[in-house]
What does this fold into?
Amino acid sequence: MKKTTWTVLGFLMFLFGFTSLILQMVGLQFVFMRWLDMCGPSWGFFFRLLLILAGLVIVYLMQTNWDAEA
It folds into this structure.
């Protein structure tokens, strides 16, 4: 996969995780992310945070120029 594809994937993970977290706080949720709360609300919160952090890490790693760092 190209760097651009990974960057977009990471950004979408961050976006959906963050939006889902905000919606959860006001009592709403995305229909396609309802499975996150099947183990309980605290696990759902943890998975949303994990989705946000994983998205940020992917974007950071894909935007780092490793050749210039050496």
